[in-house]
Amino acid sequence: MQQYGDLIGKAVLVTGGASGIGAALVEAFCRAGSRVGFLDIDSDAAGRLVDKLGGDGFAPASVACDLRDADGVATAVEALATQLGGLDILINNAARDDRQDFDAVTAADWDESQAVNLRHLFFAAQAAVPYMRKAGGGAIVNFSSIAYLLNMGDIPSYATAKAGIVGLTRSLAGRLGPENIRVNCILPGMIVTERQKRLWLTEESIARMVDRQCLKRALEPGDLVGPCLFLASSASGGMTAQSIIVDGGAT
To answer: What pLDDT digit, counting tens, does each position of 222-248 carry?
Structure first.
């Protein structure tokens, strides 16, 4: 793993950090020497991750949070910032790619997906930025997806949210740049996680995506660690309002 010395001692918050991509990021920042906290609705998975990393000598903080609750997001960010002694870096990772049939989507379904996949990114940033201001600057990394580029018909609200994250990233970058807070975005391709294999992915669908990619292997959560650490560190100090695609060359 690439090491960035300026991440040592930095306070990092990861949303959706208990499993999948989020867990890989929590572990990576711990190994980079950062003070790490994460939010997740799954307290059991969070406990397992804390125990696992504790066995390696790391002690990430975790707070249970339903990211659909904007007030709850603000409270949870404040709680973690208190435990970590501030916040320098926010990783907005949490998402849920539910499939939806076009003819059956209700207003409640649509709003649920937007709350899970888009709205909390703004309110997490709003709650984290005051701590970054006190620190003299910071970095926000938002996770979007290439899903909205692929014309996938069974994820209409999710795709809309992921496209919206790119727009939100640019808006926040414009607002926060004068305060030395950078905001960038990562668009993963098909990342093979246990959840994805359990719910959506098959050997055949993985093979089809690998065939589409320039890199002929399935991508895993670890493939997002390097790009995320880079955007969080001073190595990308001149970058903001940018989007990096990590999809093995599928798009």
So the answer is: 999 999 999 999 999 999 999 999 999
Asked if the structure places residue 68 within a domain, the reply is: yes
Angle between helix 70-84 and helix 120-135 axes, rounded to 10 deg? 30
Q: Which of 4, 131, 148, 158 is catalytic?
A: 158
Within a domain: 88: yes
What pLDDT, in 10s, does the model give residues 29-72? 999 999 999 999 999 999 999 999 999 999 999 999 999 999 99
On whether residue 215 sits in a domain, the answer given is no
Cα 43 to Cα 47: distance, rounded to the nearest angstrom: 6
| Single pTM value for the model | 0.96
Can 4 be counted among the known catalytic residues?
A: no
Q: In the numeric block, which tokens belong to residue 234?
A: 């001073």
The tally of domains found in the chain comes to 1
